[in-house]
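We treat protein structure as text, and this decision shapes the records that our systems exchange. Because each token names a local backbone shape, the row as a whole describes the fold. An entry from our holdings is shown next, in its original layout:
>
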Amino acid sequence: MKNLYLHIVTPVVILLSAFGFQNSFVDIVNAMKAGNSSQLAKHFDNYVEISLPEKSNSYSKSQAEIIMKDFFSAVGVKGFEVKHKGENGGAQFCIGILQTKNRNYRTTLFLKQKGNKQVLQEIRVEGGENAGRLEPTGF
């Protein structure tokens, strides 16, 4: 019975947890593309570190949703393009370009496994001339 568990159940659990990350990742990217703070907030940890061009702080989940809603409204989100994603020390990250009506912002998202769920712990939004000039990596 132990052998069955190790050879069948364990790989299934690993596969499902990987699918959970992909599902969370797709939902987060879609929320960024749409500039939808309420959909994005569904993936927030209890506290989220947010760095925007005009402000930077750690916010509760509800405060972070308001901060992102105000930011998305102010810049007029047109889309989000993933340029790179990966893993570092058990945490996942994504680097992309947030496209808005006036400029592009280099955006980095950091996710971490918490229990059986991937949660968004940090959002960094950086503006500048070269923000949209990352080369795609095939993702």
